[in-house]
Structure formats: structure tokens, C-alpha cells
Design goal:
This protein is mainly α and 499 residues long. It has three domains: 107 residues, no CATH class; 246 residues, no CATH class; 82 residues, no CATH class. Helix content is 53%, strand content 5%.
């Protein structure tokens, strides 16, 4: 007996339990994305008009990625309504911080080829997180400004006149943090300067001085050749004057190169080269760079100021706040699921000063292996992190009733008949709703729910022939498959089997 035949008999198109990852789950994206939420949703999502931090710990398959997708969709809905005619609300700037591979790869490579990964990750600091977040945020904002997409408008969607300080700050931030690979950095930086109206002519006066003196020297040489009077070329002072006019250019280049070298050495997660950054800094007037918090030192203070500048730019274009969603911490290959390495990376960001920055909210979706480390932390960590203020959810748990509702919602989404098929209709009458809820409670999380129901459908269909089909799952089959599934779960929890 084929599974498809069983499902079609109940008016179900496709297998709603085939997908296990929310990222590729079409049923979830089509219906459940905006209809099925975890009971703790309000605490996790908060209010987009007043960004807040929430920290969620959950085991594999508990729905952390689904929560991320749901939050992104809700922020998109909020932004759409914020750009309406009334303009009473302000949109949120959302940054997805879930691909740690490029940042960690650069960080580890700069620590030395032969240095153990654990020792390298032990030097990961808060300012490395800030650099990584600014890289994502600045790249995202610069792309939106350059392309001016109607589907992804900048800020509140209105036309904004860029003030001198904001144009300067965004130009500087782009020079430091724009990491787009869609086009070359010089091309993007030139387009950005044109979009925000940032002129850099004053920053090029040493070049113009050198070119002007060279042009005069060439003109004098041409005149001397025509009059056959080249005796002055044997004198020292014309060459001295020519070289002297290029000295401001040389001095400026050396200054910018030294600054760029120190910045690149300090920014351990970036992909900018010293030459690229030195050329960009040389095109900005010295007055605009004077007193700017360049990330030259290995410390957080400069990054805090740069972050504040970026938030000021967001407010100037109409954003009400900034949201950073952290997910998939266990997936980078240098971490490889190691709880110790995950702790080395995420612990520096547990800083109440940063997490409670005005207009900034973090949504951290973390593996539950990390929570046991928090339980063992000392008073100094608790005072620095102040997790009691961060909307902490120690475990992303699902009740049997909620899991039953999730399964029913997926069946409803895949049903092609009216009324839609319910989960109870797939079973014999002896399998009551309360029995189903009790059984599903033991699978704990949505991913395991889908795996179990998929395995149950396969086992039931394999037990019957196409000539003798059975379109109801009996209690015995349900109990047998549930017992086997629980045993596999226990083996995985003990680290003895894969899921």
C-alpha cells in the first residue's frame, strides 16, 4: 500500500510530515508561518516599536529556525504597515546573524595556521561580534540605498536629504564594514558617495597639488625644448620644488596606510584589504576623519561609538529600531556542534550594556546545551549579563496539546476537501484524542513529531497490500511505533545514535 494512496483517501495532497527543516518546509511557509505560534511567542517577539532582547534555549528540532522565520515575517508585516499613509509607526531594521562561517573562518585564519581552534576561539571578544553585526547591517543598508528597490525601501520609504554628518558617517562605515561580493568595493563606495551626496574633493587636494605642479613642470619643459634652453634642468631647485609639491600626497598616503593597517589588524572578522581601506581613507578630508572612533585598538569603546553612529543613521532615514536575530550557532564547521566552542563564541555577547542599548533588540535562538553552562556561572557573569532582564526562556518546550494542534494545522493546510481532515480521522476510533495527545507529548519537539508521524504512516502502509488497503491506523500500530521511536530518542539523548 502506498502512502500517497492512504493520504489521497483522506483528501490530503502531498505528505505534510515529510519535511523536517523549517527552512525548506513549504507547508510551514504557506500556512503555519503566520498561524501556528509557540505559547511563549509574545515574550520572544516583543514589540517592534520598542525593541527588546529575548534569549531562547531549545533542543534540536524545537522550532528555533521556525521562530526566526516567523519573526522575520512579522517584522516584514510591521514594516509594510509602518510605511502606510498614516506613518504613525516606524519600521524596524532587521539583521539576520545566522551565518557565522565567514567571520569565524577569517578570525581563525588570522590566529595562525597551527594554532588549535579552541585556543583561537578563546580570544573571540565582544568587539568581534560588533564588527560582524556592523558588517551585516552596513552591507544591507548600503545595498538598499544604492539599488533603491521598491520592494525593500529604505527606512520609512520617504525621500530623505542626507545631512553632512550622516553622509560622512555612512561613508566611513561603508569603508570599514561594507562586505558585499555583488560588485567591487570601489564601485559600491563611489555609488554610495554619490547617493548620499558626500563630496570628497577636499580630501584630494594633495593629489591635485602634485598633478598641478607636474603639469607646470611638463609645460616648462616643453617650452624649453622648443627654445632649446635646457640649462635649468641641471639645477637642483626645479626638481626639489617638484618633489616638494608631492610630499603632502606622500605624507597623506603614509598616514592612511598606517591607519588602515592598524584597523585591518584590529578587525579580525573583516575582508577588507589594507590597500582598499587606505585608498578610501585618503579620499576623505582629514577634517572628517579627525576625532572619529576608528577601530584601531582591540577594544569595545570604539565599536560602541560606531554602532551608535549607525543607529543615528537608521533614525535619520526613518527606522524606529534595530533587531538582530541570532540562530544556527552550532552549525559552523569550526564549531561542529561542540558546546564548549559555542560557549566561547556566544559568551562575550552576554553583556547587559550592549544587550540593553537603546533602540536595539537581540533575539537569540540558542542550543539547549548552553543553558547548563549558564546554571554553573558565577556572580560576576550574572552581574555582567543580567539575564534576569533579557526575557530568558530556559527551554523551548511544547505540550502534547500544542503538538497535536501543529499536526492538525499541517493536515488542514494539505487537505483538498471540506471540511479538512483532522489528525484523529487517520486513526481507528479506539485511538482517542487524549491518547494521541499523551503519545505526542513524549516526542517533545515539532521535528520529532514530524519524524514520528512520517514513520508511523510508512509502517502502517507497509503492513498492508494495495489489494487489501486499510485507511485507519490501529492503536496497536500507534503504540508499537511510538515505543520504538522513544527508544531511538533515548539512544540519541545518550549520544549513542543519530537522529
Amino acid at each position: 500500500m502506498k502512502i500517497q494512496e492512504f493520504l489521497e483517501h483522506h483528501g490530503i495532497e502531498g505528505n505534510p510530515f515529510a519535511e523536517e527543516d523549517a527552512q525548506n518546509d513549504t507547508v510551514f511557509k504557506r500556512t503555519c508561518l503566520e498561524s501556528t505560534f509557540h505559547p511563549g511567542w509574545d515574550k520572544i517577539y516583543g514589540s517592534p516599536e520598542d525593541p527588546s532582547t529575548s534569549i531562547v534555549f531549545g533542543e534540536k528540532g524545537a522550532g528555533k529556525t521556525a521562530l526566526k522565520l516567523q519573526m522575520v515575517r512579522q517584522f516584514e508585516r510591521h514594516n509594510e504597515t509602518s510605511r502606510g499613509p498614516d506613518g504613525s509607526k516606524k519600521p524596524s531594521f532587521v539583521v539576520i546573524y545566522d551565518d557565522f562561517n565567514p567571520f569565524l573562518d577569517r578570525f581563525v585564519s588570522r590566529s595562525g595556521k597551527h594554532r588549535p581552534v579552541e585556543k583561537a576561539l578563546g580570544h573571540w571578544k565582544l568587539w568581534d561580534h560588533i564588527d560582524a553585526i556592523l558588517s551585516l547591517a552596513v552591507t544591507q543598508l548600503v545595498s538598499a540605498i544604492i539599488h533603491r528597490s521598491k520592494t525593500e525601501p529604505v527606512g520609512d520609504g520617504k525621500s530623505h536629504a542626507w545631512s553632512g554628518p550622516h553622509a560622512r558617517d555612512l561613508t566611513l562605515l561603508a569603508a570599514l564594514y561594507d562586505q558585499s561580493t555583488a560588485e567591487t568595493f570601489p564601485s559600491r563606495w563611489r555609488k554610495l558617495r554619490w547617493r548620499v551626496g558626500y563630496g570628497s574633493i577636499l580630501g584630494r587636494w594633495p593629489t591635485f597639488l602634485g598633478l598641478a605642479s607636474t603639469a607646470l613642470f611638463v609645460a616648462a619643459l616643453a617650452t624649453s625644448i622648443s627654445t632649446k634652453n635646457l640649462d635649468w634642468l641641471a639645477l637642483w631647485w626645479p626638481w626639489f620644488i617638484l618633489a616638494g609639491t608631492w610630499m603632502p600626497w606622500l605624507w597623506r598616503r603614509c598616514q592612511c596606510w598606517w591607519k588602515a593597517f592598524r584597523i585591518i589588524r584590529s578587525m579580525r572578522t573583516g575582508n577588507r584589504t589594507v590597500g582598499q581601506l587606505a585608498k578610501a581613507l585618503a579620499k576623505m578630508p582629514e577634517a572628517d576623519l579627525a576625532g572619529q572612533p576608528l577601530p584601531i585598538m582591540a577594544r569595545s569603546d570604539d565599536r560602541y561609538e560606531l554602532f551608535a553612529k549607525f543607529q543615528g543613521i537608521l533614525r535619520a532615514v526613518g527606522y524606529g529600531g534595530m533587531i538582530v536575530i541570532i540562530d544556527r550557532l552550532d552549525e559552523p564547521h569550526v564549531i561542529n556542534g561542540s558546546a564548549e566552542r559555542m560557549k566561547q563564541i556566544i559568551w562575550p555577547i552576554f553583556d547587559n550594556k550592549f544587550l540593553k542599548s537603546p533602540g536595539l533588540g537581540f533575539k537569540m535562538l540558542l542550543p539547549n546545551e548552553l543553558y547548563r553552562f549558564i546554571e554553573r556561572e558565577d556572580e560576576s557573569f550574572n552581574q555582567r549579563a543580567r539575564l534576569d532582564k533579557q526575557n530568558l526562556i530556559p527551554s523551548l518546550e511544547w505540550s502534547g496539546e500544542t503538538l497535536y494542534d501543529i499536526a492538525s494545522m499541517r493536515l488542514k493546510a494539505a487537505s483538498i476537501k471540506e471540511p479538512p481532515t483532522t489528525l484523529a480521522e487517520l486513526f481507528e476510533p479506539e485511538v482517542s484524542q487524549s491518547r494521541l495527545i499523551d503519545g505526542l507529548r513524549s516526542v517533545r519537539v515539532p521535528r520529532q513529531l514530524f519524524k514520528f508521524l512520517y514513520r508511523l504512516l510508512v509502517a502502517h502502509c507497509h503492513a498492508h497490500t494495495a489489494e487489501n488497503p486499510c485507511y485507519k491506523i490501529p492503536l496497536e500500530r500507534f503504540d508499537t511505533e511510538l515505543a520504538v521511536f522513544r527508544r531511538d530518542q533515548d539512544a540519541f539523548d545518550r549520544g549513542l545514535a543519530p537522529r
